[in-house]
Amino acid sequence: MSDDGALFDKGLPIRRSVLGSDYVDRSLGSADDFMMGIQRAATAWGWGWAWGDPALDRRTRSMINLAMLTALGRPHELKLHVKGALNNGITVEEIKAALLHATAYCGIPAGLDAFKAAHEVLVKEGAIPAKE
Amino acid sequence: MSDDGALFDKGLPIRRSVLGSDYVDRSLGSADDFMMGIQRAATAWGWGWAWGDPALDRRTRSMINLAMLTALGRPHELKLHVKGALNNGITVEEIKAALLHATAYCGIPAGLDAFKAAHEVLVKEGAIPAKE
Amino acid sequence: MSDDGALFDKGLPIRRSVLGSDYVDRSLGSADDFMMGIQRAATAWGWGWAWGDPALDRRTRSMINLAMLTALGRPHELKLHVKGALNNGITVEEIKAALLHATAYCGIPAGLDAFKAAHEVLVKEGAIPAKE
Amino acid sequence: MSDDGALFDKGLPIRRSVLGSDYVDRSLGSADDFMMGIQRAATAWGWGWAWGDPALDRRTRSMINLAMLTALGRPHELKLHVKGALNNGITVEEIKAALLHATAYCGIPAGLDAFKAAHEVLVKEGAIPAKE
Amino acid sequence: MSDDGALFDKGLPIRRSVLGSDYVDRSLGSADDFMMGIQRAATAWGWGWAWGDPALDRRTRSMINLAMLTALGRPHELKLHVKGALNNGITVEEIKAALLHATAYCGIPAGLDAFKAAHEVLVKEGAIPAKE
Amino acid sequence: MSDDGALFDKGLPIRRSVLGSDYVDRSLGSADDFMMGIQRAATAWGWGWAWGDPALDRRTRSMINLAMLTALGRPHELKLHVKGALNNGITVEEIKAALLHATAYCGIPAGLDAFKAAHEVLVKEGAIPAKE
C-alpha cells in the first residue's frame, strides 16, 4: 500500500481545509504505525481521490455526507462532517433540512441519532447557543 | 414542514402514554429550534401516523419494535422501546423471547448488543433485580 | 455441525406448518449436500430454536418478522413470511399496517421494497384480487 | 393514517415534476388499496414533507439521494432518482462524481451496484449512448 | 481521479488472475466513460491497493470476502468472489463452512441469500454437479 | 430453547480457549436469567455450532471475523475478536491488513471505526506500545 503517495499528498491539504488543521495534525501526530494504515487510506482515498475530484464542489460533497453518514449509521464520522459543513459555508438551517430529508429515507431512529450527533457539534462550535 | 400539525397533536398523547410523560416533556422541553425538527418528525410520523393507526394494537407494535430495532442496530431507540414495552404490559420473559427470535434472524452480535441495551433498562426500571 | 439434530427434528414440523409442506418438501428435496448446510441451519436454529420456543405465539412471531425483514432488506425471506403470516391467521389489513409501521422506522425506500414483495405474494395467494 | 391529506396534496405535484407525470400516474393508477398505503406514505412524507420543505433546492436533494440510496442499498429507488436527477438538471458527469464519492464512503461493492443501476437508467433515458 | 494510475496497473493482473481474464476483459471492454469510473476505482483500490498488499495471501482474502460480502448483502459481488475463491484453491467444503460461519454472525436470511448465490456459481463452474 | 445443551457444552471450551477463560467466566458468572438467554445462544450457536465445525481452522475464522464485524458495524464484538485473533496467533500486521482489506469493501467510515476499536484492544493487550 505504498502506491498511494500522490493521492495522500493531494488529499492532505483538502482534509485540513475542510476538517481543520488542528484536528488533522492531532490525528496524524498521534497515529502509531497501526493507525497510520487507516489515516493514509482516509486521506488518500477519501480526500485525495474523492474530495480532490473537481467535478463536485465542496459544499455539495458536505451536503451529501450529512445524509449519507446518517444512512450508514456512523455518528463519529458524521460529527466530523458537521464541522466540515460549517467550514464549507453550510448554514444550521441547511444541516437541519438535510438531516430531515435523510430521516424520510432512513427512518426515524436513524434521524434521531443523527440529530443528536449533529447537535452536539453545533453547540460545541458555537453555531447554535447552548441552552441554559 | 408545517403541515404535520394534526399528526403531531395526534401523536403527542400516544407518545406520552407509551414512553412516559416525564421523558417526553424533557425531550420537548430541552429541544431548541434545531432539535425540534426531529422531535416534531418523530412525534408526527412515528407516533401520530404509525402508532396512531388503530389497525394494530400497542402491544403488537411494541413486540415488533424490539426485534426491528435490533435489526436496525439502534440501541438508544431500542432502550426507549424496552421501557415502552413494559408500559404496554409486555413481560420480561416476552422481551427475552423477542430478542432471541431477532438473534436468529439478525445474527449473534446484533443479539448481544440488543440484550445488553435491554438489560440496562430492565434493571433501571426494576423489572429484573440488580445483581449483587 | 452434527449436534443440531434434535433442534432440526423439532423445527421441521413447525416450518411445514407455517410455510406449507409443499414449499418445505421442495426446499429439502432439491437440496444437494451444499445447500443442506443452510437448510439444516434454518430449520434447526430458525424453526426449532426460535419458533419452537413457546414464550411467543406464532401470530406474534409472524408480525415481528414482517417488520424485521423489512429492516434487514431481505425480500426473498419476507415473501416466505408474508405467506406464513396468512397461514398464521394474519389479515391483509394487519400486514399492511405492519409494513407501514416499519416504513416509519426503516425509511421510505425500505417500505416501498417491502410493499412490492408482499403485494406479489398476496396476489399470488389470492388474498387480494389481481388488478385487471 | 388519514391526517396526511394536506401533505399528500402538497407532495403530489412535486413528485410528478421530479419523477415524471407518466411514472406517478402509473404508480397511483395501478395501486390497489394495499399498495395505496405506501403510495400515500411516499407522496406525503417523502415528497410533501421532505422535498416540499423549501430549505433545500431540488438539485441538492437529488445529489444527496444519489449517494444516500447507494448507502442504503436500494437500487430500485436509486433508479427513480437517477431519472429525477436528470429532470433536475444534474449532468451525467455530476452523477458519476456523486457515485464515486459514495463509493469511497460505502465501499466498492455498493459502488458497483449503484453504477450498474444508474447506467441502466442513463442509457434508457438517452443521456449516454447505448454501446454498439 | 487521475492519480490512481500506478494502483490500477498493479491491480489489473491480480484481478485477472483471481476473477479470470475473460470476465475482466469483458467488464473493461464493455465499459463506456461512465462505467470506467467504477471499473478504475475497483481495480485500483480493490485490487491494486487491497489485494496487492502482500501482508495477506489470496486464499485468506478470498475466505474473508465470502463472509464479508454475506454481511454486506451484496450477492452480485459475492458470486464473483465465489468464482475467485475456486481460482484461489478454496474447496466447496470450505466455502460452505465460511458461509455457515457467516450465518451465525449475520443471521439466517443473510445466510440463505448467500448460499443461493454461491450455489448458482458452484453449479455453473462445475464445482458441484447440477441436480437432475 | 432447551435442546441446545450439547452444542453449549461443545462451544464452551472453544469460547474459553479463543476469548480467554477470565472473560467467559465473568460473562457467564454475572449473567442473570435474562442475559443467560443470549449467553447460551452465543455459546451454543456461535462457538459450538460455527467455531466447533472442524472444516475451518481457528486462524481462518479469526481473520474472517475481523472483516465481517467491520462490515456489520459491531465494535463491541470486534474488540472481543481482536483479542481472540491475538490468542489464535494472528499478528498485528495481519490484523491491520485485514481491516484495510475490509475498508476497501465497507468504506472509509467503517474502516475508521474498526481501526479505533482494534487499536484500543491492541494497546490494552500490550500487542502494540501505548504512545507516550
From TrEMBL, chains A, B, C, D, E, F:
<dbReference type="InterPro" id="IPR003779">
    <property type="entry name" value="CMD-like"/>
</dbReference>
<dbReference type="GO" id="GO:0051920">
    <property type="term" value="F:peroxiredoxin activity"/>
</dbReference>
<protein>
    <submittedName>
        <fullName>Gamma carboxymuconolactone decarboxylase</fullName>
    </submittedName>
</protein>
<dbReference type="Pfam" id="PF02627">
    <property type="entry name" value="CMD"/>
</dbReference>
<dbReference type="InterPro" id="IPR029032">
    <property type="entry name" value="AhpD-like"/>
</dbReference>
<dbReference type="InterPro" id="IPR052512">
    <property type="entry name" value="4CMD/NDH-1_regulator"/>
</dbReference>
<feature type="domain" description="Carboxymuconolactone decarboxylase-like">
    <location>
        <begin position="39"/>
        <end position="120"/>
    </location>
</feature>
